[in-house]
Amino acid sequence: MQDAAIPKTGNASGHRSNGRWQFYLVALIPSLAMGLAWYLYFFGAGFLPDGRTNNGELILPPASFQSLSLYQNGKAFGIEQLEGKWGIVVLGEAGCISKSCQESLYQTRQAHVALGRETNRVARLFISASTLPSSSLQNEHPEVFWLKASESSVLKAMKKDTWPANHYYIVDPLGNIMMQYEAEQYGRDLLKDLQKLLKASSIG
User: Fold this and answer.
1) Homologous superfamily assigned to 57-200
2) Is pLDDT of 89 > 50?
3) Environment class of residue 203 by beta-carbon count within 10 Å: exposed (0-12), middle (13-18) or buried (19+)?
């Protein structure tokens, strides 16, 4: 009579271990892709042309979009609501009644439209610590996410002492706020940076 077969627990354990590593690798791919995109864009490589410059100010280390504590219609708003897209964020004044605030909205809209077939890879957001713009102004920018935030949360996340009124920012699909622009800065500056980032990135 033959002895009963003994289960090979070592192989089962090895398969589980391999499965975990495969899961971690898949989870890391977006971060690695984004890191490569950033490297190629900001530092370049031997096979890329020299002389690349960014028109916005690079934020190092990046600020966390999730740390802004955002709300839309009273409900928490996170990076997942952007569905993997890049973001253009305007930190606007209360009600956006000033020319400067409305100009920032206009410049970011023009840059967004000028992306052409890449437009769907980018979302626009407006953040206020108090009153949102009037319904008539919101109707002029129907694709924008209109959000409220705690001023203290934004200042802490952005490492600012005062609200950066009407400045605007690029957010990558992983929730890193990584480039900032002055109030009313020309939209073509934003456009050029976005075009380079989108070209270098395989996600978003």
Assistant:
1) Glutaredoxin (3.40.30.10)
2) yes
3) middle
